[in-house]
What does this fold into?
Amino acid sequence: MNTSPRPPTPINSPSYPTEFQQVILEKSQNFVGCGFVFTAISNFLQRHDRGYFTIIGAPGSGKSAILAKYVTENPHLLYYNAQLPGKNRAEEFITTICTQIAQTSQETSLPSLLQQVSDKLEPQQKFIIAIDALDAVDSTDQTPGSNLFYLPRYLPRGVYFLLTRRPYVRKQSGLLIEAPSQILDLAEYPQKNHKDVESYIRQYVKIVLHAIKNRYEYFYSD
It folds into this structure.
């Protein structure tokens, strides 16, 4: 990745809910490859002063692992996983994200909080909210025609959303946004994905062989 976004000064390092911490750790362990995705994200952040970046991939394509790895390398990002039990409704999302943004604030309007954050950002600072598995959102209780999770149609300067979701019909995206946006479909990079798989297998074999070697030396050290 070319550059990492600078953390916004008014926000402390987010304290992710325990279940999110577990997912991030599990998904990012032994992660290899996908440098082209991180480069694309970095380029998007450099080109635009706000926006939505979406990673699309079929189940098992590694999009959740990519997002988890990105979060571990940029720990000041806010993270939310809609695929976990009880986390796929807008009310839970708004409460969790607003709490992560400002734990001492009574403000519960996400657009208002994002504007407050934007107003305090330095010119080159970026505030990013990462949402995994947007396709898992249950919009039954939302206002008809509203964005999934009530995600903002407009974004203030310096605010970005990094999303992952399964393939979908573009006309039925569940999002109406008027901000810079980019979609990266992992299915369009089969050769790069194949190389990543090869790298993962090599790394896994190396780990296994190292573990066998250590066990052998332990038993026969005497």
Q: What stands out?
A: The chain is about 40% helix and 15% strand. The CA atoms of residues 23 and 68 lie 8 Å apart. The chain has two domains: 18-188, 189-222.
